Amino acid sequence: MTRLVVVLKSLALASLATMMFGLFVSSTASAEGVGAEPWVTNPELYDDPAGLPSGGDKGYIRAPESAFVSAHGGIVSDIIYLNRCTGCPGTGCNCVFTKSSINDATSNQTYIGGVQQGQTMTITEFSHPQAVWDEFVTCMRAVYSPYDVSIVETDPGQTPHHEAVVAGRDVDIMRPGVLGVAPLDSSTCEPKNNVISFTFANAHGPTAGLTTAQHMCWTAAQESAHAFGLDHALDCSDPLTYLFTTSGGGSCGVRYYRNKLIDCGEDVARDCVCGGRKQNSHTKLLAVHGQGTVPAPPTVDVTMPTNNSTVVEPFSVVANVSDPRGVGRVEVLINGWEWAQVEGVVGRTAYLISVPNDVPDGILDIDVRGCNDLDSCATDRTTVTKGAPCATADTCAVGQRCEAGRCFWDPPTGQIGDDCTYSQACLSNLCSDIGGGDLACTESCFGGPNDLCPDGFECSAPTGQQGVCRPPPEETGCCSTGSDRNGSTALLVNVGLGLMVGLIAIRRRRRR
Q1: Is there a contact between 279 and 261 (Cβ–Cβ < 8 Å)?
Q2: What is the pTM of this model?
Q3: Does the CA dihedral 499-501-504-507 come out positive or negative?
Q4: pLDDT for res 25
Q5: 379 near 300, Cβ under 8 Å?
Q6: What percent of the chain has pLDDT over 70?
Q7: How far is CA 363 from each of CA 303, 318, 383, 386, 475, rounded to the nearest angstrom?
Q8: In what order do the strands lie in the sheet with 299-304?
Q9: CA 164 to chain centre
Q10: Residue ranges of domains in the chain
Q11: Is the Cβ–Cβ distance between 347 and 250 less than 8 Å?
């Protein structure tokens, strides 16, 4: 099975080094130089992240920060050059790279390669049909389209750029056993200019439900992203992944940089090279390159219940929702209010969502909204009747009005700290006890110095416990003992996802 290079270096040592990441296709792979792994021949310089013996399918190469060319003025180029090494080897070949102490795409110098410094390595020309190359280029442009990145097929020359070599085989650089390799600056985690990455296209074929071009796109997207400070990720739908299939063995489709926090790692979660335990590859690339083209929303088609039909509880909504990026979530809104939501599943297009039984009787305008992970959404509607259309608000839920046979809530306006009697009146969708008697709009939180409550509010719970945001207790000018930082009157609130209304507390008004 194809393998990605694993980086499990401790953060203390990783902060001193730059790591070379790659895709492995066999159980052995040399690191720096030809022969035994460097953590075997030079244990004082290189650590085996898997622990000796590693089996040879995991490793990294440390390199100093000086191996990267500084970005002029701190500006990182938005150009990614896809180099297919036309005519190589031969006269005019532009894929002759010199093993060096630096990475510089403008002078064809690379830190990568199993030869001595000063020696050259020639990458053989892309060997697949033109149709495969065209499909690959289209895929790369789609994967990078949400960012202000220019994917080009002509060498930018001395203009700062990133070079993704997509041709040849691992033996061309004397690193047998790899599908791709690229450097990552782990000492600063800053994006770099003029980095050369290698995707050994001639060793790629169809795999795990992917075409040859899509397989190459996965590798090239991963290797090129290392230049921008991205680590490996444990999600098979992201190009930074080490995983080939879903947990159930299904295809993960074309990989896109995902807008969600994902554990770093290859086989199991580990500390990220750049700190923390998770990364959001989309936001990292957005921070480097800025906004590109917002992708089109999913297609949504409600198939059940049919329009103008009658339903009885319990009932469900069935909809087909599809998106090239995959579906991030599917929501069910009834008369303008979200009553249900499910997460998207890789490879799934048909969604069955149960409608809560406490939806009041009446005419129901059911909107199914499908969104991808970048919050690009589309909606399809079906209108049904449950029971009898409402005549007055007496048959509706608390706080709802009745018009034209429909029960509905007005749009929420309640800010945190405002009085409330039901959660749907609050912008936060949470009306709860904030400290002792009446109800107010609030937000859930976890106690601690960084409780994420707005200014003027604090979490009602001790560190690590879940509570709600509330104004801090008023100073009484008297001494008391046995209280936590929230005061002796602190009330712990066990707030679950389904908490709506019902806890009694002292009313605190929102600070103006």
Answers
A1: yes
A2: 0.74
A3: positive
A4: 43
A5: yes
A6: 79
A7: 18, 18, 7, 6, 52
A8: 299-304, 316-322, 350-354
A9: 22
A10: 3-289, 299-408, 411-512
A11: yes
Q: Name the token pair of 71.
A: 């970005």
Rounded Cα distance, 383 and 262, in Å: 38
Distance separating alpha carbons of residues 235 and 77, to the nearest angstrom: 28
What is the enclosing helix (H) or strand (E) of 142?
A: helix 130-144
Of 198, 325, 347, which is closest to residue 257 (Cα–Cα)? 325
As given in the structure block, the two tokens for residue 169 are: 């085989």
Return phi, psi of residue 86, to 5°. -60, 130
**Torsion angles phi and psi, residue 220, rounded to 5:** -65, -35
The CATH fold assigned to 299-408 is Immunoglobulin-like (2.60.40)
> Is there a contact between 310 and 383 (Cβ–Cβ < 8 Å)?
no
The one-letter code for the residue type at 5 is V
The predicted pLDDT at position 21 comes to 57
- What letter represents residue 464's amino acid? G
pLDDT on residue 250: 86
Closest CA to 372 of 304, 323, 312: 323
pLDDT value, residue 12:
30
Distance CA 142, CA 110 (A): 28
